[in-house]
Amino acid sequence: MKVYLEYAIRRVHCESCRGVKTEQMSWAEPSSNFTRSFE
């Protein structure tokens, strides 16, 4: 069974640096095993 996840990463205004940051998603990192096929 194939499952596709679609998720929009939130962008937030950072008060300390006065810039825009995106949230970190550990499960979406290129080295994460969660996005590969389970063996």
Helical residues, percent: under 10%
The tally of helices reads 0
Overall mean pLDDT stands at 77
Helix-strand string: EE
Number of domains: 1
As a percent range, the share of strand residues is: 15-25%
Q: Give the tally of β-strands.
A: 2
Largest sheet: 2 strands, antiparallel
Global shape = elongated
Termini separation? 13 Å
Strand order of the largest sheet: 1-2
Low-confidence region ranges: none
- Cα-based radius of gyration, to the nearest Å: 14 Å
Structural class: mainly beta
Organism: Engelhardtia mirabilis
Protein name: Transposase IS204/IS1001/IS1096/IS1165 zinc-finger domain-containing protein
Tell me what the structure shows.
The protein is mostly beta strands. It has one domain (1-38). The protein has no helices and two strands. The radius of gyration is 14 Å and the shape is elongated. The model has no long low-confidence stretch (mean pLDDT 77).
